[in-house]
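ugh ok fine here u go
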Amino acid sequence: MISGIVTDRYATVALTFLLPNGSSLPIEFVIDTGFTGYLCLPPEAVSLMGLPFMYDLPGNLADNSEVLLPVHEAIVLWDGEEREILVIATGRRPLLGTALLDEQQLVIQFTEGGLVTIEEL
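structure:
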């Protein structure tokens, strides 16, 4: 089970990245059920972590403009297991999307300091 807390009305959990240089780094993510990808990280963080570039993903923004979003590969610990996932380098806040929630149960006690749990179905 993965657990976190509600902070300032955001459901958050921390994931640990296993970096290409052999070190590990925990990062707190906001759970975003409107994002269907795996993870988003600010481009500066992706660069500092040295995550390998995979491809550019076409994206359509709220103002209907088209952009190319760089996608990188990462290894994270998900419920104690190493898992290869895709990280989109965009935005200012780390986001966890529904692709990581597939076949999982998400429970949020939506009150400040409330418990957030993600558990395999």
